[in-house]
Amino acid sequence: MKKHKPESRIQVIDRAAMLLDAISRYSLPVTLKALSADTNLAPSTAFRILHSLIDNHFVDRDSVGRYQLSGRLIRLSSNQSNAIDFRQVAIPYMEKLRDKFGETINLTTREGDVVIYVEKAIPNRMMHVQQIIGSRAPLHVTGVGKMMLGRDGVEGIKGYAQRTNLPTYTRKTFSKFDTLVDECLACVDQGYAFDNEEAEMGVGCIGVLLYDKFGEVVAGLSVSAPIQRRKDEWIKHLIKAGKSISIELGHVIAKV
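The chain above was modelled as a monomer; its predicted structure follows.
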């Protein structure tokens, strides 16, 4: 009698799932020793897999080395978090910014190593920047993309650089790793980012990030304009709109 082959399994994924299940059973952050015991994995194996999960934002590690599920993973598994359509929340703010600036306002989301344009508000003027809904742009040539990279930290930016080789689109594109790291981290620190003709000569953008109730980035909000018409005074209005949208999405703004 012919024997049936066992179902194909991928060991590292099985082990990662075991660790996630184990973490979920604890109401407080848990130690590596406890997770190793719960899963019967060697501490070195558990440590390696946990840090891969951290790199992919599925697990967080606190200051004393204990592990917990990340806000991103909780968001992905929460049906309630999907109840709010961030596009519908953002559109009224986008329209107000469009009318105030007289320029194109964009809403983008991240998919892997690119941002995708999912919504726009177009000004009533003949000469304006036109972004096509559904079009994509590499993270390192957009303002919001650089902020998203900056939140991944140096190792995350390094991985992106290795995967993409940082293609150059204009002479102003950040195509060298060290300068890209400095730029991305600075953008996160200041809370907004410029695209200074890095994707297309003659076009400049200013972008901010939008956050959900778990503190995860859900989208980028930006203004695109001919570089000679772009104004630094728009920054404060973009930041204010970004915070207002994030609050409507459930994000709690930390008080300084």
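The chain has nine helices and eight strands.
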